[in-house]
TrEMBL record:
Keywords: Magnesium, Membrane, Transmembrane, Transmembrane helix. It is a multi-pass membrane protein. The chain crosses the membrane at residues 43-63, 232-253, 265-287. One of its GO terms (molecular function) is P-type calcium transporter activity. This is Calcium ABC transporter ATPase. InterPro entries: ATPase_P-typ_cation-transptr_N, ATPase_P-typ_cyto_dom_N, ATPase_P-typ_P_site, ATPase_P-typ_TM_dom_sf, ATPase_P-typ_transduc_dom_A_sf, ATPase_P-type_domA, HAD_sf.
Length: 549
């Protein structure tokens, strides 16, 4: 099937007709609205009642002017500081979110050429190229190829679902509302293995992921501190009312017991006013007017301090929520680590290490030199057998591991030797087999080059390729396994590359026929952030369990 994608003229026409692929973010509240919403807080409402009572008492000559003024200042500071701080932080969060969205890219066919564009620029009708590791940018129908997809972001199920084109399924039917249908894929899901082309059906908020995102934005919950302050406000109100009633009754009982009852109506009115005044004074004194002000100021100051540590607090009450944490779930790549994978070592079957490959210096000064024969086979096993592609000045497509290998070959100046036209067939990586493969023709023989998990590769390897291009028996499997364990303990990501006789199946997949020759063990590392260890240790010392997901 020949795919050309949209033409330049069709792109703007479809964007105008079907809309953008950007997800709508709920419009943030204005500063004035935030301030008014702040007055609904139970503690602030109690202070407002206290302010009114003190104002009445002042005009009755029963209170000094600074008493209502003090409560009013406390209300303005508590509500104003919190509202202004949260408004500013939300503005910074919007800017950051827009910057991150601009970095989110996908691959589409347009005018017959493959382009990398921002996800927000995808329009209905675009042909999206999908590879292992890609996150789908839209909902659509597969028109060529097949992939296994992780849909856990939508339904929580980790089992991979096979998606294939209708052409491959001989015009089978499908239901776009059924997540398990074999031909329709959804935005936000992740390709686990395979390659395919997807024709975009809907974009933006019309996607299933977009609808769920809108629903998720509309929900909000009160924080642990807010819940506790609400209870405190209710307790203050209850005890205040009980105390006021008790004081009024006490004064009246004292009046009757002592026999100092008023002689006329005005005397009774004056007595009741005095009793109520004392009761209200007790209620006002029971209100901790400084608590909301102190809480707001502390949270605002902490949000500014955290911003200096590159932590943007969108909602300032999120700070006190984090104080109630008992378990912290953290991603590893890009959070605990730098998020930049790089090839740091290549070990041979005799555990001799390469000093460099091409122009790329490896982190082993005492390594050996690689011959042209060795480099040629390494390029086929690691470069041709790769879901990423070398671009003019960057790597295009592929998962992070494959991208790091292509980047290493680009730095080594060896990507010109990658000729995808010589590939007879591919086997794409999947989580079941744990390897990928490519079949090529060498001297009229079908040779299969494999790249995958070392434990899978070593089971089939009985010899290895030396740096000089000669073949040797593989007698050090146990030593290699110890080396692999040691590298893994150093947070290395390991891949083994090998080759052997093979064939291309009737489905066009490269398949190995048996015994393999080990080319080498590739060590790839994503270095820890310099501040990661200290941050984790500090959180653990605070009694929070850290779980990496």
């Amino acid at each position: 099937m020949s795919l050309m994608g949209l033409s330049s003229a069709e792109i703007e026409e479809r964007r105008a007709k079907y809309g953008s692929n950007s997800l709508t973010q709920l419009e943030r509240d204005s500063l004035l609205k935030k301030i008014f919403q702040g007055f609904k807080d139970p503690m602030i409402m109690i202070l407002l009642v206290a302010l009114i009572i003190q104002g009445v008492l002042y005009f009755m000559g029963q209170a000094e002017w600074f008493e209502p003024v003090g409560i009013m200042v406390a209300i303005l500071i508590a509500n104003g500081v919190a509202s202004v701080s949260e408004y500013n932080q939300e503005g910074k969060a919007v800017t950051l979110r827009n910057d991150e969205a601009a970095k989110d890219i996908t691959k589409v066919l347009r005018d017959g050429e493959l382009w990398e564009i921002p996800v927000s620029d995808v329009v209905a009708g675009d042909i999206v190229f999908l590879q292992a590791g890609d996150r789908l940018p839209t909902d659509g129908l597969l028109v060529e190829g097949s992939v296994h997809i992780d849909q856990s972001v939508l339904n929580g199920e980790t089992e991979e679902i096979l998606k294939c084109s209708l052409e491959d399924a001989e015009n089978d039917t499908y239901d776009i509302e059924d997540l398990l249908n074999p031909h329709y894929a959804y935005r936000g899901t992740v390709v686990c293995s395979g390659e395919a082309y997807l024709e975009t059906n809907v974009v933006g908020d019309k996607t299933l992921f977009g609808q769920l995102a809108l629903e998720a934005q509309s929900t909000s919950r009160r924080t642990p501190l807010q819940v506790k302050l609400d209870k405190l406000a209710h307790h203050i109100s209850a005890f205040g009312y009980i105390g006021a009633i008790a004081i009024v009754l006490g004064i009246l009982i004292k009046t009757f017991v002592t026999g100092e009852t008023p002689d006329n109506l005005w005397g009774w009115v004056r007595l009741i006013i005095d009793a109520v005044t004392v009761a209200v004074t007790v209620i006002v004194c029971a209100v901790p007017e400084g608590l909301p002000m102190l809480t707001s100021m502390l949270l605002s100051v902490q949000s500014l301090k955290m911003e200096k540590d590159n932590v943007l607090v969108k909602k300032i009450n999120g700070i006190e929520t984090s104080g109630s944490l008992s378990i912290l779930f953290s991603d590893k790549t890009g959070t605990i680590t730098e998020g930049k994978l790089s090839v740091v070592d290549i070990a041979l079957g005799d555990l001799v290490h390469l000093k460099h490959i091409g122009n790329l210096e490896l982190k082993n000064n005492e390594g050996t030199e690689a011959s042209g024969e060795y480099i040629n086979k390494f390029i086929k096993a690691a470069g041709l057998n790769n879901s990423a592609h070398p671009g003019a000045d960057s790597v295009i497509g592929g998962n992070s591991t494959d991208r790091s290998i292509i980047k290493a070959l680009m730095d080594a100046g060896l990507t010109d030797a990658i000729n995808r036209d010589e590939a007879l067939g591919f086997k794409y990586f999947n989580s079941r087999d744990k390897y990928s493969a490519v079949a090529v023709n060498e001297d009229d023989k079908c040779i299969c080059y494999l790249k995958g998990a070392p434990e899978v590769m070593l089971e089939k390897c009985h010899q290895y390729l030396g740096a000089d291009g000669t073949i040797h028996p593989l007698n050090s499997v146990n030593e290699i396994q110890k080396y692999i364990d040691n590298q893994a303990a150093r947070s290395m990501r390991l891949l083994a590359v090998a080759y052997g006789a093979g064939h291309v199946s009737e489905h066009g997949e490269a398949e190995n026929d048996g015994s393999l020759t080990l080319i080498g063990i590739i060590s790839i590392r994503d270095n820890l952030r310099s501040e990661a260890m200290g941050a984790i240790r500090e959180v653990q010392n605070a009694g929070v369990q850290v779980v990496m997901i």
